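Two folds, back to back.
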Amino acid sequence: MQNSQEHLNNQKMQRKSIQKNKPQQKCIKKDVGKPAGLDVIKLETPKVWSCLNVERQLIEYFTQIGRHVYLSLAGIKKNSQKEGLSDKALAKLQKYQAIYQNKSMYSYIEHIAQSLFNWKCQKLSVVYFFRNDRTSYNKYQKIYLINEKWNQIIKNIKFLLNEQFYFELISILKMFESNYTTEQICDKLIEQSKELDQVPQIIQNFFILLNKEKKIEQQIHGASCAQLEMLKTIYLNSLDNHKDQLQIIIEKLRQIMYENWVPQFIQQYDNVSFEIQNKIFNDDSNLIFQSDKE
């Protein structure tokens, strides 16, 4: 009987010892330090262009078709001499090599913009539509559209645009409101573009795109009077020969403004915006570093 009692006492002591040595689990109070009602707080999306659907699509579209910037290849030659590159590094190297092979094309479109349209460019960089970030922004004259929603959209993005294109964009939107067909709008733009000192930016950029896509094979590199006259003739002929491509650009703009944007529609210009999509939207670059036309 005594042995049985001792055995029970030993078991109790063992259990106490185990419980004593067992790590103590602390009770964590999850809500300590949090403001009351945090679970019901709703944060509103800031009303800036990058958070607004139509505004963001407009800026992305103008960036994709209007920025022609040759990427810097600094450091690529050194890295290309390394052996045993990974598949990812090799793919990146091949992409840069392809860009390097297009250097002459960027040089040519810079020549077109400067010689034909007197457009100010940086080295191997032709950018339309956007305001130069080194130029102070002065509020542009307000021009009201019938569509109040469009007025707000333009108000939200106009500080990004250069003044000349701001007025050109308003003019196109007014034609949308007046139920002009896309073909009628293109005809008016082409008619206006016969005089080189009156060419809208959207037409200047259109001719740049045609050359960038190699839809125009003949290239005139010189700056003599005869060579510039030949370049002007090629330009004027392209307006009629490739009017269908201009209609695509205008129709895309109409699709965005009426919030009927079809992402697949942009595939026709994927090759135009390759370097933009892979560089501008994946780094911290400033969208607005165009050299404005005087």
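---
second:
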Amino acid sequence: MMQFSAVVRELRKWLTSFAVVNVVLPFAQYTLFGGLGLLFLYELLLKILPYSSYDTIDLLFTTIPLYAIGYFAFFSGIWLTLISPRIRELPIALWGYAFVILFPFEGLTLLLIVRAVIYILAGWALFRYTTAVGAGREGNPYSG
């Protein structure tokens, strides 16, 4: 855990050297969970709306690239949350993304299951890291 703390500390120094990161860092949680919400909304709308409304969904999420915006917002939110003081919410987002991967729970393939397991394990590892750092056992790089 100490090595990962050092990596996070150096990553934070490097990323905050860019001015744009300092501007968007307060919005890390919004980009993380907003992107996750857009991805889930897309899957949910595909599941519950009738086929006749597919043109509208296609317009919103493909022509106006809301799906791509949600995807990139989620993954940029991961990096921003990793260097922010609110790192404790990152495992929840990773577990939520695993849920979005599996959401319709139909046509589960080995690829989907492996992708979900990777995010679940990453969330579990980050949860262990945040609890160790939060308890003060490893030295909290974000104590203020």
